[in-house]
Design goal:
Layout lengths: L2 E4 L2 E4 L4 E3 L20 E3 L4 E6 L19 E6 L5 E6 L7 E9 L2 E8 L9 E6 L5 E7 L10 E7 L13 E3 L4 E6 L21 E6 L5 E9 L3 E10 L2 E9 L6 E5 L5 E7 L6 E8 L7 E4 L9 E5 L9 E7 L5 E3 L4 E2 L5 E11 L4 E10 L4 E7 L9 E10 L4 E10 L5 E11 L8 E8 L2 H6 L1 E2 L1 E7 L11 E3 L3 E2 L1
Parallel strand pairs: 4-6, 13-15
Antiparallel strand pairs: 1-2, 2-3, 5-12, 6-11, 7-10, 7-12, 8-9, 8-11, 14-21, 15-20, 16-19, 16-21, 17-18, 17-20, 22-23, 23-26, 24-25, 24-27, 27-28, 29-30, 30-33, 31-32, 31-35, 34-37, 35-36
Length: about 475
Amino acid sequence: MVAKTLRGLLVLSFGLAVLLPARPALAQGTPANDDFSSATIISALPFTDTADTTGATSASDDPAGCGTNNGSVWYALTPSQNEVITANSFGSSYDTVLSVFTGARGALTFITCNDDSSGTVQSQVNFSATGGTTYFFMISRCCGLGGSGGGQLTFNVSVPQPPGNDNFSNATPIAALPFSDTVDTTGATLEPGEPTPPCFGPPAGSVWYVFTPATSGSVSASGDSAFANEIAAYTGASVGNLTPVGCSTSGFPGLLTIRVNAGTAYYFQVGGVFGQRGPLTFNLDVTPPPAAGFFFEPFDPSVFDTVQFFDQSSDPGRVGIDSEAWKFGDGTTGTGGSPTHQYAADGDYTTELTVTTTDGRTATASQVVHVSTHDVAITKFSVPTSASAGQTRSITVGVSDKRYAETVQVQLLKANSQGGFDQVGTLTQPVPVTTGKGTTPFTFSYIFTPRDAAVGKVTFEAVATIQGARDALPTDNMAIASTTVH
């Protein structure tokens, strides 16, 4: 492509003309392409230009680009056909911002921009250009540093070559799993008839892989890149006659898991979204089974408790759990994510949970549920019917136990004037299993006080607590005795 500049008019060899306002005379040290109207014309690719932009300035109508402009220079390119363009400032001596526009001065349309690329202070952009359209590149100094200019600029523009597996017919074959391949998608294209992935939309450019499994099962595909990417899976024999099997965009959920059948060819279309391009690693592997797990409450159930089970399984394939099947260990079963069950007798029961994913993978987890019913009761409470101040009298609390020998603490409390009870004594002792109406006595000695005499009556309360276990029926662990009169 050949170009020449007339005053106020840029003429390109294929007949396009772009009106450029005549620029004023340049100040000493100002780059020749300092102003939009004096953009350096790129007549052939690849293109490289090295210039000193120290004296570059900013015009009042310069666009914002990536939001900063501290002295800029301009370049213009009109490709003759549709193609991918890559431009960068690699090799420059300062932190650059690279922005791309189309249109006319004062009415520019933003295409793309970049500040830092791949961890460097230089910039790179990639975009799909339309033949016959003029694209303007604005390179400025970054980050609000003030002043004008920048330093030694190196500006490169080229048409990247498409990768070897750019087209469906050249899909990279996957011979064995796990598989991983890194490819630069900067030059990737979309061939005629190429399908649009159903999960997001057309990629910036795609590459293709094909896998024919020897056995049926599930496989998971993912893409690792510095930009958002998408992966779509298909079956079929030609690019224009494909049936979608699944699709995923990085982060949503970021992994594509599909069920595959032995002997069937599966094609994977991989590319960046939002127009993004660059190095991308495609991974494919056998999908691991789900991670089965559950918990239950109460953790120390008795025969009087309804036990609630909770599935807490997860799926590394990210397709989700489809069903849960439970065996409670006593011959009964259940389904769902949070079933309930009541055991008829004390004992150890091995409960199993089997989960199945939506694509048919399964896993099983088991736990022992220890059912143990602990229960004591206060069945006797003997207090004196009357007493005088200064007298020491015995108060006996009888605790019955019909299941297991326990260690029990009994608290003796006395009613106060505020409507509550204050503790006046505590005893802890073993309680054996009792038969019939038998009880284990807890005997307290209480000295009646002048205040008791002033009130004229005393009401006692007893509370029994099993040590080291939960009482299955705690409502009979508290008793209030008949009032002792002064």
